[in-house]
Amino acid sequence: MVTNVDAGECLVPLTEADRLGPTRLTVSRLSFDVLFEVSEFLSIAGKLGRHGALAMQFAKRPRAYVDFNDPRTSVRIRRNQAFELHLKVDLPHPGEVAHLVALSSQALDDALQRLALG
Predict the structure, then answer these.
(1) Is there a contact between 26 and 51 (Cβ–Cβ < 8 Å)?
(2) Which of 42, 82, 91 lies closest to 58 in space, CA to CA?
């Protein structure tokens, strides 16, 4: 999920049927879920700038309609396990604390090592 709090004027497809004919709107907050391959994400990461993002890395490609933010903890855990979540990183807006989530301590240690090397 990518969040932009200073979106301004945007072309927004309000329904899937509108994806080829989006509506021009003035938006104060815009959130959207996007599926990226790692190389695609790395190529646009610099454009995220000061916007917040919630990035999740899975071993299995998730289906687009699966809600990984279900308010029920047990449901979220089962869905993360089903698609083999490696790492979840909540990158908030500047001045806020980032959150890392992994399904095992080894996966979290591995992610922290990669971040330290980067």
Answers:
(1) no
(2) 82
pTM of the model: 0.60
d(CA 115, CA 21): 40
Mean pLDDT for the chain? 79
Domain range list for the chain: 1-32, 36-117
- Render the burial of 59-97: b for 16+ CB within 10 Å, e for the rest: eeebeeeeebeeeeeeebeebbeebebbbbbbbeeeeee
| Residue 80 CA: distances (Å) to CA of 13, 17, 73 | 28, 29, 11
Question: What is the spatial distance between Cα 73 and Cα 69, in angstroms, rounded to a whole number?
Answer: 9
Cα 91 to Cα 3: distance, rounded to the nearest angstrom: 10
For 88-102, the pLDDT digits (tens) are 888 776 677 777 888
Percent of the chain with pLDDT over 90: 7
